[in-house]
Automatic annotation (TrEMBL):
It comes from the Bacteria. This is AzlD domain-containing protein. The chain crosses the membrane at residues 57-77, 84-101. Pfam families: AzlD. InterPro entries: Brnchd-chn_aa_trnsp_AzlD. Keywords: Membrane, Transmembrane, Transmembrane helix.
Amino acid sequence: MEMKRVLICVALMALVTYIPRVVPLTAFRKPIKSKYLRSFLDYTPYAVLGAMTFPDVFTSTGSLISALCGTAAALVLSYRGKGLVTVACAAIAVVYLVELLL
């Protein structure tokens, strides 16, 4: 790839990264009073993160069965109020054990 194209790509990536950070600062100069809008803005990062990572859960292992078992273990433990590290380690262990059995 020629250097000019690389620099254009880097500039566009920087712009795309910078715009979502600047727009809220310029659009919302006053404190947001709407409870609906505040809750929407509070939960949006979690929803986007979930939408980006959840499909990879099922394609990260070689077997859909082990991925489903790990997901089920993570859902059960998180529903029971376990911590993030506990849930992640348990899900990894379940996937590993299921992969060994298959």
